[in-house]
Amino acid sequence: MLGNLPLQGWLVRRRAERLLASSREWLLDCGDGVRLQGFYSPQAEPGRAGVGRLAVLLHGWEGSAASSYVLSCAALLYQRGFAVARLNLRDHGSTHALNRDLFHSCRLPEVVGAIRALSARLPEARLYLGGFSLGGNFMLRVAADGDAPETIAGVVAISPVIDPQATLRALEQGLGLYRRYFVRRWTRSLRTKERAWPGAHDFADLWQLQDLRQMTAALVGRHTDFATLEAYLEGYALTGKRLESLRAPASILLSADDPIIPVADLERLARSELLTVVRTEHGGHCGFMERWGRPSFADGYMLAQFERFNPP
Predict the structure, then answer these.
(1) Taking the complete model, does pTM exceed 0.70, yes or no?
(2) Residue-range definition of the domain harbouring residue 249
(3) Tens of pLDDT along 232-258?
(4) What mean pLDDT value characterizes the chain?
(5) What is the DSSP track for 234-296?
(6) For the domain that residue 284 is a member of, what is the CATH number?
(7) Which pLDDT score is estimated for 151?
(8) How far apart are CA 168 and CA 212, in angstroms?
(9) d(C-alpha 62, C-alpha 87), whole Å
(10) Which of 104, 261, 274, 292 is most deeply packed, by most CB within 10 A?
(11) Based on the structure, what is the number of domains in the chain?
């Protein structure tokens, strides 16, 4: 909550000025006609463009590549010598017009495709994947996917969605503030999608629901191949055997006081020698703030893990 306040955002953007000044937009071909937007910030070292370490960061649901938590972490990594690519998921940021079909959380192949496209553009770079909340869930699934590039050095997930069923229940039973926040942001996104594709989408009946479970069930029925809401939620869960096939070192940071991701879900992850789990007592959901405008504990954790995966 504190991380979303205007003061925090202003302080983070000021700290990220050098990163943002070097940023250039890339539209990534993800296969099957899908394009995702990324923002690439190379290190200013003549003759070495694309060489070395590339941190690839992915935001959470209804966030974007410009979210404060993404910029905060990106600025620290950039300062420490990493080139940085900040990705937008489909229909996030200002990308609603890029692809006709609607975003949903089981669109893993296009995120894998985006990582492959980055690797193809920067073949000499080692890729360090970092994700927050739903973005952390995606990045862990990428690291366990057989089509992911071999240049992935490791992945760090901050407050990742582990069991979507449990997360949906937590949102329904917890503080109404979180529930209203996501309903408002999602509704705004769907309206933007309608305007971007006139005549292709009609979400008018959803505005009346104002309920995450009902809205998700309706959109699953219309815009996915899943027969039920439960099957869809299981489709992007990390529980069970999902992470048994990890192909690179992975690390999860989760707080016991996270109001959205029950910490008990950690016990339902597959055991893997490649997986490290760190649980803190405090930190909230993708918060972990220590000082206003400064790198968070999560930022420092991601940096430390990236350097552990493959020292420069």
Answers:
(1) yes
(2) 2-309
(3) 999 999 999 999 999 999 999 999 999
(4) 93
(5) HHT--TTTGGGG--S-EEEEEETT-SSS-GGGGGGSPP-TTEEEEEES--TTTT---STTSPP
(6) 3.40.50.1820
(7) 96
(8) 8
(9) 13
(10) 261
(11) 1
